[in-house]
Amino acid sequence: MSTPSIANNAYQMAAKLQQQARSLDETASERQSVDFGQMVQEAVETVVDQGREADRKAVGMIEGKTDVVDVVTAVAETEVALETMVTVRDRVISAYEEIMRMPI
């Protein structure tokens, strides 16, 4: 596992999210509201899929079909995605709590 590969994967994820945000902006003009729940569900499914891929590679390593470097890279990618998801969750909760503290 190397830092450039993790950084490259993080950059690719950020670019993908930016592209999705642009497509959401384009479709937002067509419809009045963006389905936040669906967006969160897709993000969670992406993290789960990465976890499953890491599991498949770990099993492949046990069977002797996958290289250790591939397994470590997949686990690191999953860890980064999960940490990102947790950070976003914490920010959403913090924003909600701040809104609830606002006087009416």
From TrEMBL:
GO terms for cellular component: bacterial-type flagellum basal body. It comes from the Bacteria. One of its GO terms (molecular function) is structural molecule activity. It is found in: Bacterial flagellum basal body. It holds the Pfam family FliE. Belongs to the FliE family. This is Flagellar hook-basal body complex protein FliE. The gene is fliE.
